[in-house]
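Schema walk-through. Below, the input block comes first and the output block second. Nothing else is stored per chain. Lengths vary across the set, and this one has 226 residues.
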Amino acid sequence: MTEQSQKADQQEHLREIVREVQRLAGVHQHVSRGRTSVPLVIGVTSPRSGDGKTTVAMAVANSLANDFEGGAALVDADFETHSIGEQYGLARGAGLFEVLSGEASPSDVIHEVPDRALRVIPAGLALDRSARVLTSGSGSQRMRELGAEAQFVVVDLPATFNTASTPLLARLCDAVVVVARSGKTTQRDLGLALDRLTDANVVGVVLNRWTSRIPAAVERLLGLAR
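--- output ---
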């Protein structure tokens, strides 16, 4: 396989995953109801780090922003890695955590992506207070406020084995999709991850065969080419 055909294969595989996530999350049913003031919140997680969940979340958000009126918001909820913020070159500062805790308003933490109907919200500085904030009861409403001007909110959740905050964050989403990595994720790990998410609306599992490192061809697809 040539390098060019491999890149094309990578891009097409990612598009297939995006389509499956949209189907599982009920994107088209949401769109068929017309433009509403309530965005659809889609969470993306995986059993362990390195399964490709962040790449999938970014791809889904970009696809929704490009293909549907109203655009999308991409939220970094992984307080451990800050992967979304780093991919879009955002300095660590106020973000999701500060909005959920009431320390900042959505307008303070939303970053517009040039030439795309996409807004990015970094994770913020959770420190050791995330569990208390996430059990406060107002998180779901504040999460939606981050997408008040968008039709969709895509949330890059932490890997389920990394932190106890993942199930709490997942409960703030309308639909949660779990990413499993071919050749790495075991049935046992997947089963344990799903057990931890029993209180969330897990709508399905998608299989990712690529590593978590974003290939150059995929970076261009996501508007990340440096």
